[in-house]
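Human: I would love a firmer grasp of how sequence relates to backbone shape in proteins. Take your time, and here it is.
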Amino acid sequence: MYRRNKNEKLIKFFLRFTFCLFYSSPVVSIAATPPNILLIVSEDNGPELGCYGDPYAQTPHLDRLASEGVRFENAFVPYSVCSPSRACFLTGLYPHQNGQIGLATHKFATYNSDIPNFVTLLKSNGYHTGLIGKLHVNPESAFPFDTHTIRGANFNRKQTVTDYAKEAAAFFVASKGKPWFLSVNFPDAHLPFIRKINGRPTKPVSEKDVKPMPWVGVNTPRLRKQVANYYNCLARLDEGVGLLLFELDKSGQSANTIVFYFGDHGAQFPRGKGTVYEGGLRVPLIIRWPGVAKAGQVRKELISTIDILPTALKAASIKAPTNLPGWDLKPLLINSKPSQWRQYLFGFTTGSFPRNSFIQHSLRDARYKLISSPRPGTENLDAGSYLDETHPHFVISGATAKDQSTANESVKQAFALWSRPPRYELYDLQKDPYEWNNLADDPAHAEIKSRLIKALIDLQERTRDPFLDQKNVDAFVKEQLANRDMKYRKQKNFRWSYLETFPQWRALE
């Protein structure tokens, strides 16, 4: 009996020892293997998700991702239009640093084709690279993905969310044996806001179920219908994310994959997309990094999408270019308390194309927000695309004259200010999170305004922003306004003059 008990104890010890070896060896392997990097990018949506507390969102898959990763409460893009925003996270640079200061479809581009970026940096270090969905940054040759499928914008949703998942599954199979970088760019929630397509979402909401986001300022049946279908787009996006993550799990590679989910900018409603208001710049950002990030965290630090590239490069043990202004997010992901973090966040717009031309900068800290308009009192053509039905690009999700007539007086005043902005705007985001009450001329806030102006100028000087020079501002606007007929779009070799003059200015000491 004693001998059998002794043998049983030895067997149990051996089993426990092998169990520890079996389950500890993958951890060692994962640590020694460069992580895969998956970017999931959605179109034209702010943090209108369930995990961000939105009352109308149907986003169980993204909510689950947030519970498995880290959710950033205060994440922002530097420019709230597609091409500039995407160029920022791909290069890790501000728009005035990389040159993509307008839409690619309107001939805006990076200053040069050899700009270091997500694709070239990872590819040169052994990563297999892929893109599913649109790129929308010029020149495309600067981003030499190994594979690129579903290449168009797909705003009509001809390719379904299932198609995106299938393409991703094929990429996972093709990449086995090598670390990989994949960017999956879904078309939702870009206009048109499609209620239901290909059976998704299964339970769409209608205008009686929702209200517009509080920063929009108007609430009419016509606008609520657009808002409802915006939420339907987000529900369809969520299903697509769920299918994509299922394929990642099925491939067996989830444990060694960092997942970044974020929106490319805010929603296309008044004071959203295209602006430097919070509705345009604030986005959802969720990062899941198994074995590294502490799951379930909510971080409140000020985050920019220019932080994504330095974070990914550090995770992959790749040296980042020295000129990147972003921060490595790993200290926040592992739930440490960094000794220092950024105090200010930068935002910018040119209006993105000639018929919407208007230049503004913004700078915010944890509480206050400054907006700087270097051509004060002139017409903001971008605002017109949301407020003026005669504008050639008036959007269906804008506010018609009839819609605006229902707004309260503070909203009407804010719309008027947006249409012809003053030199500076100042908002107390703690008391006025939706930026209705401009405090720029309030003597009680003069010191705060002065501090933010100084901080903005300092950032522009450090990053060599050509728009710090009024001559560059005026020359850029003059050329934009002279091309409102948009004939340049049919000119094969057309090139905006800033692509030569701004690099020359930036090179000056």
